[in-house]
Each structure stands twice: as C-alpha cells, then as structure tokens.
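Task: encode each sequence below as structure tokens.

Item 1
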Amino acid sequence: MSSIPAQGRIRIGSAPVSWGVWFAEDPRQVPWPRFLDEVARAGYEWIELGPYGYLPTDTARLSRELLGRGLHLCAGTVFTSLHHGPAAWDHAWEQVRPVAECARAVGARYLVDVPALWRDDKTGQIVEARQLTTEQWRNLTSGSEWLGRRVRDIYGLQLVVHPHADTHLDTPASVRRFLDDTDADSVGLCLDTGHYAYGGGDALDLIKTDGDRIGYLHLKQVDPVVLTEVIENDVPFGTAVQRGVMCEPPTGLPALEPVLTAARSLGSEVFAIVEQDMYPCTPTRPLPIAQRTLAVLRSFIE
C-alpha cells in the first residue's frame, strides 16, 4: 500500500497518562484540574479523555473546562474483552456507550480501544492464557468490527484498536494478523510507537505498509537497555513502567522524526498523541517532561 505524496497535517496532543493517570480514581494521581491546567500550560491544544471518570463526565461542564483553557478533545478510550464472545460484546457496549457519548458530545472523532490485558498491569497477576484460541481470535476480530460499525453508525466515531504490551495484540505478527482479519471500513489502528517497539515491531515499517489503516498515533519511546531486561525476565508491564521502560523523547526508540515524516506523507490529518507512561509519579514530574517533549516534536514537523 503506497503512501500519498501530499503532505498531511499532524495534530500533536497529550493525554492524562502523560501526567501519570492510569485510573479514574487513585490518590497517587494528580487531580484533573491540575492536569488540564498543566497540559494547556505546556502548549498542547488536543487531549484524550483518559480513563472514564477521571475528567468530568458532565459534558457541558467538561466543554467549559476545555474551552476555558483552549483545549480540544480528540478521543475517548475504552478497554474491552471482545475475545470472550458475544456475551462480552454486550458487556463491552455498556462500558463503551457512556465514553462514546461523552467523547462525541465534546467534539472528539475517535474512540481508542485497548484489548484486555492477560496480565494485570497493577498486580502482575496472570489472569488468563497468553495465547488466544482460534475461536477467541475470531471473537476478537468480529467483535472489533461489530464495535467499530456501532460507534460509527450511532456516534460518528472512528474505532482505532490499540496494540498494547501484555495483551493478545502486542507483536508484529499479531498486529499483521489482526489487520488482515478485520474490515478496514470498520476498524482502524492506533499505532503506539512505544508499545509496538516493546513487542518487537518497527512503527516506521508499519506506516509504510499499512498507512491506510493508521489515522491515529500514540507517541512514546522505549529505553532499549531496560526493555532487554524486561523481556529477558518476563517482567509485567506495570513493573516495567516503574523501571523506566518508557523514556522521555528523544532518548529512546523508535526515532520519532521519521515516524512523523512518514505519517505526514500519508496526505491525511493524523493525530499524534504523546503518552509518557510513568505511573505512579510525583506531581511535579510531568509538566517539565511534557514541555520538553512538545518542543522536540515541534522541531520535527515545523
């Protein structure tokens, strides 16, 4: 699949995770007003909703809070277990519906879906088999198509599925299989450069071969030294984050400048959302990192 020569527009944003936010409520996380104040102060204009319930769920209030800071919402995020079959799809919809309603009401165009982790990211406990059966894989792909069509038809949102460490969609082989087995009209891909590298993938290669499936990026980098230790010792993702496996750009891999250049060459608008995984973290740590990261990214695209 060839890219389009015309230069597309890159919209850089950030997300609550870059402020150490992984959960709707956690006393170790910064309060949401501080996140909004600081993400605007850092110079970002676009943000994600983050875990539903962290930011205000009253859409009128959320709109006012964003507008007052010059911020715009680009996506909501959900976590689903579609591989468990139709009964799980119904349960997933109950989780997806309020997020999609909120995201659309505040102007977002995307819904990011993270498949369920087979190992708990907080405790490290293995909660199910690492490999899907043939039936479970079919449930995952057909369920993703079902969800993509539904959020598109009801809310006008584009579903982008997010390959993620410690999920069943975490390696180049599994991503390739997922893309081949799903309908492009219903399901897009959120390419997280850090998670894809974590699983052994090359984000630049994926953009070149499957750019038409990628309209949404999460920008992060891995520390190759820490990653080697993590993989060799089968360290859970949550613990790996605490050890610094996701590092501040531009100190890690993959190099983000060629990734952004390739994304621009697709000729379409692409959201590129910074996600600096560092849960938990001290309240004073995120803002300086966010400011430095934005300066680096702007130097690549301006």
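Item 2
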Amino acid sequence: MNLAEALALIEAAAEPAKAAEMAAYHKVDRRYLGTSVPAIDALARDWRNDLPLDDRLALADDLWRSNIHEGRVAAAKLLAQARIRPDDSGAWALIQSWVPEFDAWAIADHVCSAGQKRIMADLSRLDAVEGWTTSDNFWVRRAALVMTLPLTKLNFPKPEEAAARERVLGWAAAYVPDRDWFIQKAVAWWLRDLSKHDPARTAAFLDEHGPQMKAFARKEAAQYLPAA
C-alpha cells in the first residue's frame, strides 16, 4: 500500500459536497476531500490488520506529509491501537514529530488519541510531553493535557500512575493564567473527566485555582461534582 493507493481509497469514500463545508468549518488552508471519520477509521483498521509495522509507519508518515485533512486523520488512525508490537518506539517518534505541526483541533485530537495509548504504555514518555507545556504554539501546549486524559479515568491508580496524574495537574495549574480559550477548555476537560473518578482531588484543585480560571472553564470542570 503506497500513498497514492491509500489516498485513492480515501477519496473513493468521500462525499465531495462536504469538502467545502469541512474547509469552512476547520478554517485551515489545506485540501479537504469530504470523507467521514468512520469511513477513514474503517480503512485504517484494514491497513493496521494487513500491513507489517514498518509499512504502517511509512504509510502514516506519507499520509501526514500529504497535508490533506483526511490523510492526516488516517495517519493518526493507523497508530491508534493499544499494543503495537514488537516495538512502539517508531510510532511514538512519529507522533512526537507531528505535534509541532498541530494547527486545528480535529487533527490534533485524532493524533492525541493515538498518543494516549503510547503514553499509557510507557509513562516515562511524560518527560517529552512536559517540554510541550512551554511551547509558543498553544496547540502543542493543549496536546500535553489532551494526550494525558487516560490518567483521569483511573479509579485505582498504581503509585506511578498517581504520580503521573499529579504531575499533569501541576501542568494544568500552570496553565490557569493562560487566557486562551482552547487552553482553558483543555484544563476544564481534564478536571471534568478526573471528577468522575477522583472528585476530592478535583475539588481541591478548584478550591486553589478555580478563582483564576475563566468562568466557563470553572463551571465545566465542576460539572459532575456534588453541589456545595
């Protein structure tokens, strides 16, 4: 499977009338084919099953470099699996190389979904993610929280997972003074998801930092907490 063949399959599943709608919605200057995410997901699932790991990585890299919206989504989908055997370091390296190019939420979130699995497979990768928290690109800063969301969903975290959770909460606290809407939204998202599994820790964070958060973010973060 080469790039031209993959793009032809993606385009064959497109609804061309949607391409202009997608371009207007995402507001980023790149080519849009009009292919739905479920259609891309189905293609990527077949490719994951059929292609050896090295071929999957090469195709993902080529799809990303195409700078076609659906190509970049497909690149992320190719790496979106819990276990990548025998070695997932190549997948993690690709994901890291894509992060600085984030310029829109949809592509960023698909890549972050793939990256979540790589981080949970090896929490030492948080060392690299921490470097994103001081990036000049707010999409990169945002990715540090979106890519660590699985840490919020643990009811009984192991000691290393609990430490990782606290580490990311430290990043979230440092983001609180950032007035960018997407950053405030990411902090709220992280806390809202955490509140379903550790409401006490979420409440403690909001007691300390909530007054400095934007009102919408504070409200969303507390959405599932018991009323005071």
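Check on item 2: The chain has 13 helices and no strands. The two ends are 57 Å apart (CA to CA).
End of task.
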